[in-house]
């Protein structure tokens, strides 16, 4: 299982003072050596505050992402509620909801670290909504998308990919176990329901609507709702499909715990026939780069650092143990697994 201090529902991260931005919220009181308070916790930093921090000895401070992330989750609930009630939603609302977190992706290059920092214990549906917007936007950049308007469309489509679930009965959405065949047929209607919902509102681009409609289509034609193959699937939908699978598998669900990112990436790498091969390879390569150097807890209680990941055995990284600095190749010790990624 991979988690942070979920019980606290507090999302903080360390940031170099030189990388602080106006609007960041300080997570702790900052004092001078002789006890004088420089800036109190909870203050929204301005250019003045940041200039002041550059003159003290602290080179790294902790910022509080709680309000930003929790607000995004609450905003996603509001959007879903409006749709349930038949009220209009706009692209502008979604962009405004995502902007503070997308700003964080520009500063935090390690998407694995950011996603783990932003994982929470409950509200899976709504954190999934927000996080798919984040991951889809990052994948798009890795794929070479540079136009800000296009990146915005992909992030918006990722955030709205499951908007059709607002029309799926709650007992199916929240069922603590596998769906029956009848229930699954109901669930499979959500992409078309999402497309129909967005089609009522003129601010959403055709590309966004198609991505929502097609995010469960698969390269081999075994997806739904239309059974499309290959080039018939919109490129945005292909990106969102991979973001969706990765985040769903690495998240805690009511019927199972989280699955290690190493095992999920290994699964994606070995199943190139159903999702876009090029996007998977780019995604896996960049994610592995993000995982190198991470501090992990192993299933036998030991702590170590990921030093090498063989692309042919992604689920079994090589670990340098923290206590004695010995090298442990998990491929040779398959009874030991990575239980948790530790974010300091």
TrEMBL record:
The HD-GYP domain, residue ranges: 103-300
SMART domains associated with the record: HDc
Gene3D superfamilies: Hypothetical protein af1432 (1.10.3210.10)
Pfam families: HD_5
Domain of life: Bacteria
Protein name: HDIG domain-containing protein
């Amino acid at each position: 299982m991979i988690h942070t201090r979920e019980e606290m529902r507090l999302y903080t991260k360390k940031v170099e003072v030189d990388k602080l931005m106006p609007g960041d919220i300080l997570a702790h009181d900052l004092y001078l050596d002789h006890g004088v308070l420089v800036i109190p916790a909870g203050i929204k930093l301005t250019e003045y505050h940041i200039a002041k921090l550059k003159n003290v000895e602290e080179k790294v401070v902790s910022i509080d992402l709680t309000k930003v992330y929790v607000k995004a989750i609450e905003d996603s609930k509001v959007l879903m509620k409006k749709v349930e009630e038949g009220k209009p939603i706009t692209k502008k609302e979604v962009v405004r909801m995502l902007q503070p977190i997308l700003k964080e992706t520009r500063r935090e290059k390690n998407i694995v670290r950011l996603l783990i920092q932003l994982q929470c214990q409950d509200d899976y549906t709504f954190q999934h909504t927000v996080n798919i917007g984040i991951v889809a936007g990052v994948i798009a950049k890795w794929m070479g998308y540079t136009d800000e308007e296009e990146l915005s469309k992909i992030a918006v489509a990722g955030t709205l990919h499951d908007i059709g679930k607002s029309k799926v009965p709650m007992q199916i959405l929240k069922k603590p176990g596998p769906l029956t065949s009848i229930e699954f047929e109901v669930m499979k209607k959500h992409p078309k329901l999402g497309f129909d919902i967005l089609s009522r509102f003129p601010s959403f681009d055709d590309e966004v609507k198609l991505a929502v409609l097609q995010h469960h289509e698969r390269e081999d034609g075994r997806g739904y709702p239309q059974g499309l193959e290959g080039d018939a699937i919109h490129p945005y939908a292909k990106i969102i499909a991979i973001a969706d699978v990765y985040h769903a598998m690495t998240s805690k669900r009511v019927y199972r715990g989280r699955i290690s990112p190493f095992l999920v990436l290994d699964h994606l790498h070995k199943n190139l026939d159903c999702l876009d091969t090029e996007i998977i390879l780019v995604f896996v390569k960049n994610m592995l780069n993000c995982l190198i150097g991470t501090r992990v807890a192993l299933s036998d209680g030991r702590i170590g650092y990921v030093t090498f990941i063989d692309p042919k055995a992604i689920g079994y990284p090589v670990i340098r143990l923290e206590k004695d600095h010995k090298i442990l190749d998990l491929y040779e010790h398959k009874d030991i697994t990575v239980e948790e990624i530790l974010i300091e």
